[in-house]
Automatic annotation (TrEMBL):
L-ornithine binds at N166, D230, S234, M235. Carbamoyl phosphate binds at S56, T57, R58, T59, Q83, R107, H134, P135, T136, Q137, C271, L272, R316. This is Ornithine carbamoyltransferase. NCBIfam families: orni_carb_tr, PRK00779.1. It comes from Liquorilactobacillus uvarum DSM 19971. It is an enzyme of class 2 (transferase). It is found in: Cytoplasm. It holds the Pfam family OTCace_N.
Length: 339
């Protein structure tokens, strides 16, 4: 009996607080098994399709390694390699992939694509990021918070920057479900939309999480146990980069802002990739044009002891392994845990 068996993970609201906590705790358990070289081939003999419309380092690597560790075979299907969305509909692709593969990961643009894959695919589908949500990232992020602080309820997480992107949506709603207070510091036109806020408020009313949405970066970071930011322009967004940089510069995570949390032990997260210096071609171009050293986070904070960004990135693999194992593995996870 496995409570999660056959379920998809398309967005955070697919699961309750107890279920999300289970995914986080199971990821921590799997991390410990891996460290001790204890085999955990819960998906032996299974085949996993990895469907990517957008680029990825962490999510692709995490799904690949996690599938291998679980005894499954991962197959990368890039958007230019298959007929998907070009010569063939999402529904037809889903039916074909679902008839051959045991699970499907999708990263891309529309949330509807991932939900259509789940509807027509008849196998578990996992959202590896869409324009709206980044649920597998959340299991890794809240796992990292749990590793650092021991428990989640009552912590305060502040996100500054583009408060309307997939990661901001996911953090706000996941925090609200799990009882983590979420502050968002962003200019008014980049704050969460009314529909996202409505979901988060409903969840917060159940969990007791306190939510704060403000355009004042200092008010946003006050009392934060964790500061979080993401790129100022997301993949596929068609916006004026120069305008966005000027607009978001007051929300950069730098030492000044970090010192304003009022807490010495505040940690810093970023889902990555990040523009924290001029070491990438795009970063160098953007920063040079504005005579800046960094965009959403300064290099000194990114490299500081308070930064857990690489622990967070490494946790993507354990988190994704947890999600795939519980939704596709022959595990004993009783219903009674979630009643
Ligand atoms: N954080 C994250 O999803 O990274 P990738 O885009 O490299 O997968
Ligand atoms: N908001 C970012 C997240 C990358 C992991 C993007 O969608 O590009």
């Amino acid at each position: 009996m496995n409570h999660f068996y056959g379920k998809s993970f398309l967005k955070e609201t697919d699961f309750s607080a107890a279920e999300l906590n289970y995914l986080i705790d199971f990821a921590i358990h799997l991390k410990s098994l891996k460290k001790q070289h204890i085999t955990h081939q819960y998906l032996a003999g299974k085949n996993i399709a990895l469907l990517f419309e957008k680029a990825s380092t962490r999510t692709r690597s995490a799904f690949t390694v996690a599938a291998n560790d679980l005894g499954a075979h991962p197959e990368f299907l890039g958007k230019n390699d298959i007929q998907f969305g070009n010569k063939e509909s999402v529904a037809d692709t889903a039916k074909v992939l679902g008839s051959m593969f045991d699970g499907i990961e999708f990263r891309g643009f529309k949330q509807k694509t991932v939900s259509d894959l789940a509807e027509y695919g008849s196998v578990p589908v996992w959202n590896g990021l869409t324009d709206d949500w980044h649920p597998t990232q959340m299991i890794a992020d809240f796992m990292t918070l749990k590793e650092k602080f021991g428990s989640l309820k009552g912590l305060t997480l502040t996100y500054v920057g583009d408060g309307r992107n997939n990661v901001a949506n996911s953090l706000l709603v996941t925090g609200a479900i799990l009882g983590v207070n979420v502050h968002i510091g962003a200019p008014s036109d980049l704050q969460p939309t009314a529909s996202i806020l409505e979901i988060a408020k409903k969840k917060a009313a159940q969990s007791g999480a306190k939510l704060l949405i403000t355009d004042d970066p200092e008010a946003a970071v006050e009392g934060a146990d964790a500061l979080y930011t993401d790129v100022w322009v997301s993949m596929g967004e068609d916006v004026d980069y120069d305008k966005r940089i000027k607009q978001l510069l007051p929300y950069q995570i730098n030492n000044d802002l970090l010192n304003k949390t009022g807490k010495k032990e505040t940690i810093v997260l970023h889902c990555l990739p990040a523009f924290h210096d001029t070491k990438t071609t795009i970063g160098a171009k953007l920063l040079g044009a504005h005579k800046l050293d960094a965009l959403e986070i300064t290099d000194d904070v990114f490299q500081s002891e308070q930064s857990v960004v690489f622990q967070e990135a490494a946790n993507r693999m354990h988190a994704i392994k947890s999600i795939m194992a519980v939704t596709l593995g022959n595990l004993f996870i009783p219903e009674s845990l979630f009643e």
